[in-house]
Amino acid sequence: MQNKYKDLTATWMFSFLALGISLPFTATYAEDGVTDNEIMIGGVMDLEGRSSGLGLGMKAGIEAALEGQTVAGRKVRFLAANDSYTPE
Fold it and tell me: Span of the secretion signal (predicted)?
């Protein structure tokens, strides 16, 4: 009978240890670009130079697809950075 309780105690101790180790990793924290109202995503594309047509078209398409969209109640905003593609 005493051995049964010994195993049960070991199981509970292991469970509490596992819970104590995992709790800090379950906390929710803000990532860069995520606020209570907005999620910002971005991309680097050719907005100037010889390939600007591709970059500007991609930017317009992404913005059109995201317009009015929300994720978990947060507005999604797209930011584009220009890499001024010049192959020379």
Answer: 1-29
Q: pTM score, two decimals?
A: 0.59
Q: Which strand (E) or helix (H) includes residue 76?
A: strand 74-82
User: Do 41 and 79 touch, CB atoms closer than 8 A?
Assistant: yes
Query: Residue 37 burial (CB < 10 Å; 0-12/13-18/19+)?
Result: exposed
Q: Could you report the per-residue pLDDT of 24-41, keeping only the tens digit for each?
A: 444 455 568 888 899 999
User: 62 near 44, Cβ under 8 Å?
Assistant: no
Q: What is the full DSSP assignment across 23-60?
A: HHHH---PPTTB-SSEEEEEEEE--SSTTHHHHHHHHH
Taken in order 54, 60, 64, 69, the sign of the CA dihedral is positive
